Structure prediction request, 434 residues.
Amino acid sequence: MRFITLWIAAFGFLLGTSSHAQDLAGDYQGTLQAGPQQLRLIARIKHAEGTGWMGAVYSLDQGNDWGASIPITSISVDGKQLKFAVEAVRGTYEGTVNADATTITGIWTQRQSSLPLVFERPTPATAWKDPATHTIQFVTVDKNVNLEVLDWGGSGQPLVFLAGLGNTAHVFDKFAPQFVATHHVYGITRRGFGDSSVPSDGYTADRLGDDVLAALGTLKLNRPVLVGHSLAGEELSSIASRHPDRVSGLIYLDAGYWYAFYDSAHGSLNLDVIELRQKLEKLEMGNGPPDSRPLIKELMETDLPRLQRDLQAKQKELDATPRPMLAMQAEAGASMAVHAIVEGSQKYTHLSFVPTLAIYAVPHDFGPMLANDPSGRAAFEAQDEVSTGNQASAFEKGVPSARVVRLPHANHYVFRSNEADVLREMNAFLAGLK
Prediction:
């Protein structure tokens, strides 16, 4: 039987319709027998605005992030028959709801494989509980937007963890508590993910940074140290470039990439395309200045040559990427929030005001992937070492206040693969702030 993988770093806005009066709102637990592995799943169904349903699926035995969810992108109910789709993993579920809506008996289908799956409403005694040692609260950061905040306790200067794209603050459940002896440790889950609100807008880089600042204000945290993994580097850079007085230090955990620091020497296809699109829109009738000649000159002399350079770099990267990885990337889904965050990225170049620690995996360890293709793996790692190395060097040069650490063959989740190294560097950095 083909193994079914439910886990994917993609989240989004959830909509559904209903013709059934029965109240299905609540949590349902079920266990999927996927080959030799049993996967515990939670389906969380809620009322959508107006009529209909919205929801998410949590796969508790895949990954190390208890709070990460996969959005249910559509829910339909016809009498006792319930159907929902999870587009991010190309999965569907069809089941029959019993009379008191305590059990749903059905079939999970994914990638041409179908397996029986029964969901049941848990009781307080049977509900699967987050094993981590934290408390949870929700803080309001914008109109109708509440963010989940984890508090691992401790005393001393506040230390606030921000997760990468597709993760929640729960991803730090094993790592963050190691600082409670010297700091009061928190974690914030950004909008659009996990149990935080999933609004239809508000995903620009500075808006996400403002969400963090609003949460810090509500929690009354005075000049904390922010620790960001991966995409959270964007929020760190947003705050550092606009409100450096609000924080005491920044720690980038493999997070200082294009969304956090723009390397003008090598450019960024993502950011340069966004800027180019904005300029091209000004050429449309009625959108630009009366005399468009300076804009056209800038496009021809700067933007288009830069785009050509970006495309050449992208082509080189793709040429070095083995076909299995290209196929896996093509299959991966992305939610509305993911797309909106990418579209809302911006160029950060002035980050020299805050003490900073930036840890990079150079090159990255790609685990068992490509184990049967050593030459392909070597070429891919070589390409990664060049691109990541260039970014680390650019960050080091462009942010004089930063200590840049390179960890050879570390995983992107450096705080897991190289926990001792990251703990050592973070503790030394934090001690220096005092």
Notes: The chain is about 30% helix and 25% strand. Confidence is low (pLDDT under 50) at residues 1-21.
